Amino acid sequence: MKQLSALDAMFAYTETANTPMHIGQLLIYDPSTAPGGHVGFKDILGYIKGRLDGARIFRQKLVRVPLDLDHPYWVEDKDFDIEFHVRHIALPKPGDWRQLCIQAARIYARPLDMTKPLWEFTVIEGLDNVEGVPKGSFALVHKMHHAAIDGKSGLEMTLALHDIDAQMRPRDFGRSWEPEDAPNALGLLAKAQFNNVANPVRGLQNLQKLVPMPKRLLDVRKEFAQRSDAKTSIPKTRFNKKLSPHRVFDGREFALSDIKKIREGFPGATVNDVMIAVTSGALRGYLLSKDDLPDKTLKIGAPVSVRSDDEKSSAGNQVTMMTVGVGTHLADAGERLKFIMDETQRSKAMTEAIGAKTLMEVSGAMPAGLTAAGTKMMVRMGLVETLNP
Q1: 64 contact partners, CB below 8 Å, separation of at least 6
Q2: 197 pLDDT above the threshold of 80
Q3: Which CATH superfamily is 2-160 part of?
Q4: Which residues carry out catalysis?
Q5: What residues contact 147, with CB distance under 8 A and at least 6 apart?
Q6: How many angstroms separate the CA atoms of 229 and 338, rounded?
Q7: What is the pLDDT of residues 255-313, one digit of tens each?
Q8: Where are the domains of the chain?
Q9: Mean pLDDT of 80-92
Q10: How many other β-carbons are positioned within 10 Å of the β-carbon of residue 36?
Q11: What is the pTM of this model?
């Protein structure tokens, strides 16, 4: 049994029917080179079963403390049933891209069952008329709750499910799984009393690590002067409105070689910088078409991992967020990319100067009951919509 961090717990507290807090991906597989040239649902089920030891998220479920007086716990689910988590559907004919996107949208719109391990896979067969995809291919839609994983721990799950062995044999990950009984409610309340006193004390101890922060920030501001058109406040757009429970899914394909060619034309640019520029150009075009493009640049929250080497296999979130202006006020794509390069470089330096991991630890100092109550009130009363982004 392991308690969630304050950040992980926030993702559980903000779960609603309109804003399910899972993330996911859609992967497409060509089974033609598999033994016999075919992979059936039972083969996929057996394959996943042979890899459940590869990531802790697979068999851990969330146990809430009564009245959310403390952050929840992860418990190894003794009633784990793989067939609940791995589903199977097929597209109707003709089995084209639009039908696949509609199915993915419906799947992503449904919240996960918060009483079970927080993931679902849906195998979708019948991709017989998707451009660029061999007939007989199948898709796998992943849904994983953000309380359980961030980008890097999600990668662990993805890597556990893939290898270069076409025989689909089970793998030994050097872990043993032991099912656990759900903890006693009175025991959880007793722990909550202790933690709600101890957490603020730990937070105060971490505050001393922030003493050098002001000087580091001053040094960064001197070294990385921010452009005047990047110093603006964050504008509100049609994106900052109440969400419905409905979702739309679509995808676009980019050749990595093309992205690298663009990167090479702008010394110091990264693949991430180029993809942010592509996305910001799309946002600019969309908002222009709706006559809703603000004069100020839009800003994005870009996740930054603070996971150390010895935390590589740990579940949950070890991440902070940096704010990056994306140059939507600039019509020229090259100028937009240069703007983004300056912003990401400066934001990374600021994140390092602040000591993001320490800030994340300090954020857990508030008593868990107050964190839970405040977060749920903001979400359910729609207070987020009335605040500036």
Answers
A1: 12, 72
A2: no
A3: Chloramphenicol acetyltransferase-like domain (3.30.559.10)
A4: 146
A5: 4, 8, 9, 11, 12, 15, 21, 62, 118, 316, 317
A6: 13
A7: 999 999 999 999 999 999 999 999 999 999 999 999 999 999 999 988 777 655 555 55
A8: 2-160, 201-386
A9: 96
A10: 8
A11: 0.84
Q: Name the 3-class secondary structure at 143.
A: strand
The per-residue pLDDT for 269 is 96
Q: What is the pLDDT of residues 307-328, one digit of tens each?
A: 555 555 555 566 677 889 999 9
Given this model, what pLDDT does residue 196 score?
73
Rounded CA gap, 210 and 357, in Å?
A: 11
Share of the chain above pLDDT 70, in %: 84
- Name every residue whose Cβ is closer than 8 Å to that of residue 256 and which is 6 or more positions away in sequence: 271
Segment 325-339, tens digit of pLDDT: 999 999 999 999 999
Burial of residue 237 (CB within 10 Å: 0-12, 13-18, 19+) is middle
The pLDDT assigned to 307 comes to: 59
Q: Is the pLDDT of residue 146 over 60?
A: yes
Residues 6+ apart with CB under 8 A from 260: 271
Quick one: which of 149, 157, 117, 152 has its CA closest to 27?
Answer: 157
CA-wise closest residue to 146 among 272, 247, 241, 15: 15
**Residue where the block lists tokens 């950040």:** 7
Nearest to 75 by CA among 22, 155, 148: 148
- H-type helices in the chain, by residue range? 6-13, 41-49, 82-85, 97-109, 151-160, 185-207, 213-223, 256-264, 271-289, 333-354, 356-362, 368-380, 383-386
Phi and psi torsions of 88, nearest 5°:
-150, 120
